[in-house]
Amino acid sequence: MEQREELEKIAAALGLGELLESPEKIHGGLLHKMYRVVTSQGTYAVKVLNSEIMKRPSALRNMICSEKIAANFSREIPAVVSLEIKGNQVQELDGKYYMIFPWAEGTSVFFPEIAEEHCRTIGDILGRMHGLNVSGEGVLPEEDRPEMYDWEKYLRLGSQKGLQDTEWCVGYRKAAGDIQTWNKAACDAEESLGANMVISHRDLDPKNVLWNGMTPCIIDWEAAGYVNPFQEFLEVVNYWTGDGKGGIRQEYFGAMTSAYQKHMSLEQADWDSVFAGSFAGMLGWLDYNLKRALGLEAADAEEIRLGGQQVVSTIKDLYDWQIKSGMLKEWLRRRLQ
Q: Cα–Cα distance between 307 and 230 in angstroms, integer?
C-alpha cells in the first residue's frame, strides 16, 4: 500500500493520470526499483532511483547526461528513453528521484534461450553505436578511468564487523590476491585504451535488452558514457555468447563478430591492453557491492543482502572471464591473421 501511495503521488504531480490498478514491481534491476504503472492516460515504467546512489554529488548530473545520450542514440537504434516532463527527464518529489518511461512490450532472453540470431543482432547494434560516435554533453572521458581500489580495506572492515565467516567474505578473502592483480593490469592498460574512446551504452547485457519476437529495444542507459569500443565489444561477447559451462559458443562469437565488423574494424586494436582492461567493469561492480555488503552504501538490510550475493557472483564471473578470455584471444588471432 505504501508503494502505491508513493506512485499515486508522483503520477498526480507529473500529470500522468489516476492509477487504474495496483503497480506491478518489475524484477531484474539490481540498483533501482522499477514498476509497471497503469493510469487513465497510459501505461508507464516508473523507475524509483536508489536513494543511496542519489546522495552522491555527481549522481543526478550523470543520470541526466545518460538520458541525453540515450536520446541521441534513439534516432539511429531502438532505445527506450525517459519521458521529458516539465522540462526534466529525471523527476524529484519530496527528496526522492524518479524516471518515467513509456511502457515497452517485450522480454529479456537469457541462457539457454539466447540464440545465434540474438548475438548477430546485438553485434550489429553495438557496431552501429560505436561507429556513430555520438556526442555527450557534460560527459568527460577522464571521469570514467579505472581506479586502483583499496581491496585490503574491505577485508579489514569485514573482520571488524564480524562478517569474516559469511559466504561472500570467505570467497572474497580467497580471491583478493587475484583481484588486485587484475585491477593493476586494468589500470596499466588505461593509457592505451584511453587513446581511443567512444560514447556507448556500457551495460549491454541481456537484462537490458527487451525482445518482441526478434526485434530488440535497448533499455537502462544509466551507465552510458565513454568507453574503449573494443573493450566494450569483449564485455558484450562475454554477456551474450556463454555456453552455460563457463565457456563461449564459437558460432555465437562468430555471428556477433561478423555483424560488428560491418561497422568497426577489429584490426587496429591493442588487444593485450583491451583484454587487461576488460576486467575493469566487473571490478568496479565488485567494489560497489562490497560497500553494499558492508553496509557502507546500503539503505536497508535487503540492500546489504543483495550486495553480498553480488560479491559472490561477481567473483565467479571474474574467474570465468579469465578462462574465456584465453579462448577469445586465440579466436581473434586466427580471425585477424
A: 29
